[in-house]
């Protein structure tokens, strides 16, 4: 476990959201059942991973009923974060696609590339290969003639061509529509066998195109969640994780019914406000943020020192 950031206090009591959060009981029946299954998984997960959640034993004595109450407070906090950010970011289109093969290609070319540049590459690929199957027969240099304009290496072009060939072999056509009938685990397992496709890309396809309760983690939403302090009462510290490890840790930690909305909001918030140098003063969720609270405490302490 990485060392705890000195900015984060060892334990912070749950902070009631400034705006009352809707309780999980207001969810419609299917979502409520999904939410309750998640809560049960979380009780076991928190109790079985003391390395990730070092304060669970201290604050709950390992008693499941107390862990359940901790999860209720965490859920309230996640709901408040989701709601305030949803009200803040009303323009929520990140350009994602409802067709799973479109989404796969879109996320493959988005990696470590500027938003405007990969969106332009996607449009040009669609124009050059109106049927994605044509990319399966194309040489890497033909694909790279387009992707290279956004600074992507030849390997990414080769991965796109090879991915298309593997999809053709698997399904007998250039489509991922059959994934609709697969379980989440099977989809993730298959997609991550494709070259250049990692768990985050697979989770994007699951969430954006297949409507599953997946939670893709990128540098933006990991940064915001690490600072805001998800599961802080359990002692979870995300501050030193890279996004791959963050994806593994966070995959199931957000309440399922909040994942899509919160993912989109956090990407927008990480890009606009909670940047590497955060603009906390104008942040709509600073009342829910551990980083902000710790910083304010430091400022107050410093200003109260005798001069
Ligand atoms: S208060 Fe600051 S650190 Fe916290 S979420 Fe907002 S911008 Fe990020």
From TrEMBL:
<feature type="domain" description="HhH-GPD">
    <location>
        <begin position="109"/>
        <end position="272"/>
    </location>
</feature>
<dbReference type="InterPro" id="IPR011257">
    <property type="entry name" value="DNA_glycosylase"/>
</dbReference>
<keyword id="KW-0411">Iron-sulfur</keyword>
<dbReference type="InterPro" id="IPR023170">
    <property type="entry name" value="HhH_base_excis_C"/>
</dbReference>
<dbReference type="InterPro" id="IPR003265">
    <property type="entry name" value="HhH-GPD_domain"/>
</dbReference>
<keyword id="KW-0004">4Fe-4S</keyword>
<protein>
    <recommendedName>
        <fullName>HhH-GPD domain-containing protein</fullName>
    </recommendedName>
</protein>
<keyword id="KW-0479">Metal-binding</keyword>
<keyword id="KW-0408">Iron</keyword>
